[in-house]
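WARN retry 2 of 3 for item q-0093 after timeout on previous attempt; input resubmitted unchanged.
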Amino acid sequence: MEEEERPSSSVSMEPLLLLINAPSKNILLHLLDDVWRSRKQGLTPLAKASLRQHLRISADSEVDALVASILELLRKLVYTPLSEEEIQSMFPRDFHPQLGRLLVQLLSKGQHIWREEAIQSQVRSLFASPYPASEPCQ
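OK item q-0093 returned
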């Protein structure tokens, strides 16, 4: 069975401050979903370009750091479901308050969906045949 990569003990929160430039809550939620769904193969160049445009990011290294931080945070929530208070405690005290509250809200609501997707992915991997499909027996 192919296992998901386990999260490390700490998440780099500084790159998450780039999310303050998200034009809307829906864009932010879409970004979190995109990062989660592309966790195995990485974001496509088109998705990265969209991310750069929406968040007004100029450097690829900033995009990569942001995506890595989001993914590490999402993995932590998937493998260790947390309450809103526990999610809030992951952010440093000096983290942007409005962005922090919004992220806590979105992460709290989304963690159950992302966890279910991870379980379904593992189940599909478990039952996937390593052999190519053949003609059915008659």
